[in-house]
C-alpha cells in the first residue's frame, strides 16, 4: 500500500497491517486522501477487513482517527496492537469507548511471544526492539506472525535485526514472506541472522523514502539477496505462488 503498510488477503480472510496511517513524515510515502477515505469508511476494497494490526504507534504506521473510523463502521473488524499504541489510540480517538470491545492489546517481554486468535486467524506477537536511536527505539514494537491458509507471513514493523531473534525459533516456522524496513537488510551481520534464523522464502523490503524509490532496487541487489521484492510502488499487488 504505502511505506510498510499491507493489505493481506488469503481465502476469505483480510488483514490490514501498518496501513492505517496519515502523512507524518515528509520523506515517506502515504496513501492519497481518497484511498484513506475508503479505509475510514470501510468501503470499496476495505469492506471485509477481519483484523487491523499496528506494529507500533509511530505516525508512519498508525493513526488513531483513520483506524478508529474504520472500526466504527465495521463492527466485525478487530484491532490488535501493543499496549502503548492502544493507549495512544484511546487518547486520540474521541469515540474510543464505542469500539473498545473490538480492541485487543498485548506487549510481551522482549524476545518473548504471545499467541492471539481473532476472527479465526492465529497471530503470534513477538516483542522486538524498534530500530534506530532514542526516542524512536523506545516505542513498543511488535513483529506479527500471521498464519493464513497454508501461508505464514511475518511483518517485522520497525524491528531491529538482533542476534536474540534466534530464541524465537522462527526458523522452524517455514516463513513464506518476511516484511521489514529495507535498511535492516543492509549489513552482513543482519543478513546472516535473517538467513540463518528466519530464512523466509520471500522478503518484502519497505519503509523506503520516496526520493530513493528509483535506486533502491540496485542497492538491494548489491547486498546479494536473491528473493527480495522492493515495496516502492504504491498500491502494488503482489501475488504469492
Ligand atoms: Zn517507527
TrEMBL record:
InterPro entries: Metallo-B-lactamas, RibonucZ/Hydroxyglut_hydro, UPF0173_UPF0282_UlaG_hydrolase. Pfam families: Lactamase_B_2. It comes from the Bacteria. Residues 14-182 form the Metallo-beta-lactamase domain. PANTHER family: UPF0173 METAL-DEPENDENT HYDROLASE MJ1163-RELATED, UPF0282 PROTEIN MJ1629. This is Metallo-beta-lactamase domain-containing protein. It comes from Aquaticitalea lipolytica.
Amino acid at each position: 500500500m504505502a511505506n510498510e503498510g499491507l493489505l493481506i488477503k488469503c481465502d476469505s480472510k483480510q488483514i490490514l497491517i501498518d496501513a492505517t496511517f496519515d502523512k507524518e513524515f515528509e520523506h515517506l510515502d502515504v496513501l492519497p486522501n481518497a484511498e484513506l477515505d475508503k479505509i475510514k469508511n470501510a468501503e470499496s476494497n476495505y469492506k471485509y477487513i477481519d483484523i487491523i494490526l499496528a506494529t507500533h504507534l509511530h505516525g508512519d504506521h498508525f493513526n488513531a482517527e483513520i483506524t478508529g473510523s474504520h472500526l466504527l463502521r465495521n463492527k466485525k473488524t478487530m484491532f490488535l496492537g501493543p499496549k502503548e499504541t492502544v493507549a495512544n489510540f484511546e487518547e486520540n480517538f474521541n469515540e474510543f469507548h464505542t469500539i473498545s470491545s473490538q480492541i485487543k492489546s498485548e506487549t510481551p517481554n522482549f524476545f518473548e511471544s504471545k499467541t492471539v486468535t481473532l476472527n479465526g486467524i492465529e497471530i503470534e506477537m513477538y516483542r522486538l526492539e524498534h530500530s534506530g536511536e532514542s526516542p524512536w527505539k523506545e516505542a513498543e514494537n511488535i513483529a506479527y506472525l500471521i498464519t493464513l491458509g497454508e501461508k505464514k507471513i511475518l511483518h517485522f514493523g520497525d524491528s531491529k535485526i538482533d542476534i536474540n531473534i534466534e530464541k524465537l525459533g522462527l526458523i522452524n516456522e517455514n516463513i513464506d514472506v518476511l516484511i521489514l524496513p529495507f535498511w535492516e537488510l543492509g549489513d552482513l551481520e543482519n543478513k546472516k541472522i535473517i538467513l540463518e534464523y528466519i530464512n523466509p522464502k520471500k522478503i518484502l523490503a519497505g519503509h523506503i523514502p520516496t526520493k530513493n524509490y528509483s535506486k533502491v532496487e540496485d542497492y538491494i541487489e548489491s547486498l546479494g539477496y536473491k528473493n527480495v521484492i522492493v515495496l516502492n510502488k504504491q498500491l502494488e499487488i503482489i501475488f504469492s505462488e
